[in-house]
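User: Last request for today: this protein with EPU, please.
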Amino acid sequence: MDEIIIKGGRSLKGEVIVGGAKNAALPILAASLLVGGRFTFHNVPVLKDIDSIKELLSNMGASVETDGHTVYIDTANLNCFEAPYEQVRKMRASILVLGPLLSRMKKARVSLPGGCAIGARPIDLHLNGLALLGADIRLEHGYVEAACKKMKGAEIYFDVPTVTGTENLMMAAVLAEGTTVLRNAAREPEIIALADTLNLMGADISGIGTAVITINGVTKLSPVTVSIIPDRIEAGTLMVAAALTKGDVRIKNCDPNHLQSIIHKLEKTGAAIEVFEDAVRVKGSHPIHSIDIKTMPYPGFPTDMQAQFMVLLSVANGFSVIAENIFENRFIHVSELCRMGADITISGNHAMIKGVSKLSGAPVMATDLRASASLILAGLVATGTTIVSRVYHLDRGYESLEKKLASLGATIKRVKAQKSS
Ligand code: EPU
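Assistant: Here's the final one, the structure of the complex with EPU:
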């Protein structure tokens, strides 16, 4: 198992390129199940989660070829409509095959994902929506068994905006008879990217990027060639790295429109940010000011950036409060940060952070994807050496983060661990 070893204290400088967004690529690759034919996807990040969705599609009979960041998927011959436990256990987003399979094949069998390190993460809103579209949904032996004769348009209201729920329902509704209206839909850029892809395939979706999405069912879709949008969370993580290390970094190939809440909060901590058409330049300055953050659905501050900002606020002047409003258990990085000298107290969904003058390097363990990134960021400013183990969490969602940070001047390397952790 790999470990990442960081010697802290280097100020990051230079330019770095952001890759394609994992959370856009996953539903867009799943959308290839909607119609038989050859799809081409460019700017697909090389990640464990992308390997998982490709494996899932390939097990269903799709032919999947990869050439660097381009993925070709031919879904002409599907022979299996199941996402087994072994695959869903590795990646919850496997649930994204449910909507397209039901839509095209009229049946699907997908393992229930269960909880994960960051929370219970139910899928009731996906299932209720599919039932309203006419699917017969049964939960048996840990699986969702779904079937329908015909999908019919319906009015669907989400109690809370759900990202993969909105995506699943959009994919389920594109070929349904009549009109579907999704209310209180999620508005993340990844949802817009999926809806744009579906429209390119021939779907009729409007209200994209708003909380009310209207889908007029069509009878035919066609395969397409699309490029995956830049990863706003990778961009945000690199922006925090620059601010934290008093660096000066130009983050290229990102969409600054998707980064507004991150830019806003980072500026409040004292960082200077220049915005270009497809890049941002972040100059860190000290002292770092304390700020309060509430995680919210887009366009609010993303939960996927909470752990990274917590590191920044750990070394800020004064007290900060972070309210985590999306996932009930997303503070698992806190105990590891405290082992590095951070002063953070948790009460319910609030983290109270008292800035300290320094963090000190330590062996720490990654517990989920964004937590891993936060520990690496902490290592960049800690005194001495930080060893982050269980980096397979990182590899699920960041492509070569350590190489990108090293190219900016960080002293960081990946090694094979002596013994498994
Ligand atoms: N929720 C329900 N019922 C449902 C679905 C969601 O109660 O049926 C609740 C969740 O428990 C949570 C809230 O709704 O409290 C929002 O969850 P959402 O469904 O939006 O999360 P998700 O679709 O499972 C996606 C991302 C996550 C990201 C969240 C929030 C993908 C593949 N995953 O998850 O990404 O944190 O939206 O923005 O798009 C990550 O990349 O590290 C990651 C965890």
